[in-house]
Amino acid sequence: MERETNRKFRRDLIFTIWGFATGMLAICIPLSPTTGSGPLIPLAIIVGTTVSTIKIWQDKEDDRQTQQDDRLTPSTQVKLLEERVKTLETIATGSDIDLQRRLEAIEYRDRAS
């Protein structure tokens, strides 16, 4: 069910991207001779839209992660979440210590001046 929802979301996203690209092409193609840019802007729109489409369809990491999470038991999911929280706390604490050191160095310089 979730996999089908993900595919529908991707399809709708691609329709939206190509809809905007079509609108941009409709605007910029008639203006290309006036601006002197030639085919550069329309080509950039087409390349950007194509790359976005390819990236959306190749991004299967979300699908794999969702399938993997569905197979985990609740206790395993809790353990994984606890590990993630510990990692985030370590990162946040490390940043706080580094920030504190910088502030102390600035205060020391201000006192010395």
Tell me about this structure.
The chain starts with a helix and ends with a helix. The protein is an all-alpha fold. The chain has two domains: 71 residues; 42 residues. It contains four helices and no strands. α1 runs antiparallel to α2. 91% of the residues lie in helices and 0% in strands. The radius of gyration is 25 Å and the shape is flat.
From the alpha carbons, calculate the radius of gyration and give it in angstroms.
25 Å
Classify the beta-strand content into a percent band. under 5%
Poorly predicted regions:
none
The rough form would be described as: flat
User: What is the domain total for the residues?
Assistant: 2
Number of helices: 4
Class by alpha and beta content: mainly alpha
- How many strand segments? 0
Order of H and E elements: HHHH
Rounded to the nearest angstrom, the distance between the terminal CA atoms is: 66 Å
- What profile does the largest beta sheet have? none
Average the pLDDT over all residues and give the rounded result.
Answer: 81
- Helical fraction equals over 70%
